[in-house]
Design a protein that fits this description.
The protein has helices at 7-22, 40-51, 58-72, 78-92, 94-99, 102-128, 137-160. It is mainly α. It has one domain: Arp2/3 complex 21 kDa subunit ARPC3 (Orthogonal Bundle).
Length: 164
C-alpha cells in the first residue's frame, strides 16, 4: 500500500472496520442483537480487493487477519485464513465481480460471510466445545443487507480521494 497514492484511505477504512467489529452494543439494547453483527473487516477487504486488486494482497490480508484474531480473541490464524481466502476469491474473480450489479454482489458477500462464519463456528465447536447454531446465518444476512450502503460509501470515498 502506497500512502502517497491513497494507501492511507485503505488503511483508515480497514482500521475503522476493525473498530466497528469490536464495538459493544449499548447495555440497554437486547443481548440477542449481538448475533446480527456484520463482518465489517471482510466486507471492507472484499471491496478494496474488488475495486483495486493491485493494492491489497494475500499477505496483507493474512496479517490483518492476525490483528483481527488478537482483537476478537479468536484462535490465532483463523481470521488470517478467512480474510486471505476472501482476498483470493475477490482477486481471482474481480473482473466478473465488478460487472455484477450491487444485488448480485450482495449474494456473493452473503456466501463469503456465511462460509467464513460456518468455518469459525466449526473451529469454535472443535476447540471449545461450543454447540452448533443457526445463528451463523445472521451476520451473513446483515452483511448482505449493508453491502449496498458500504459499497456506495467506500466508492465515493475512493473517487473523492482519487485512489487508484
Amino acid at each position: 500500500m502506497n500512502p502517497a497514492n491513497g494507501g492511507w484511505l485503505i488503511l483508515v477504512t480497514i482500521l475503522f472496520a476493525m473498530v466497528l467489529g469490536v464495538v459493544h452494543l449499548p447495555e440497554t439494547w437486547p443481548a440477542g442483537l449481538g448475533w446480527w453483527r456484520p463482518a465489517w473487516v471482510a466486507m471492507v477487504i472484499f471491496y478494496w480487493v474488488m475495486a483495486l486488486p493491485n493494492r491489497l494482497g494475500l499477505i496483507a490480508a493474512w496479517l490483518l487477519g492476525f490483528l483481527v484474531d488478537v482483537l476478537n480473541a479468536d484462535p490465532l490464524g483463523l481470521n488470517g485464513f478467512l480474510l486471505a481466502t476472501i482476498t483470493y476469491i475477490a482477486w481471482r474473480f474481480y473482473e466478473r465481480l465488478r460487472m455484477y450489479s450491487v444485488v448480485q454482489q450482495c449474494g456473493v458477500v452473503f456466501l463469503l460471510v456465511l462460509g467464513g462464519e460456518t468455518l469459525r463456528l466449526l473451529v469454535a465447536d472443535t476447540m471449545f466445545g461450543r454447540g452448533m447454531s443457526w445463528a451463523v446465518v445472521l451476520p451473513a444476512v446483515t452483511s448482505m443487507l449493508l453491502w449496498p450502503f458500504l459499497y456506495l460509501i467506500l466508492d465515493r470515498l475512493r473517487v473523492s480521494a482519487r485512489v487508484e
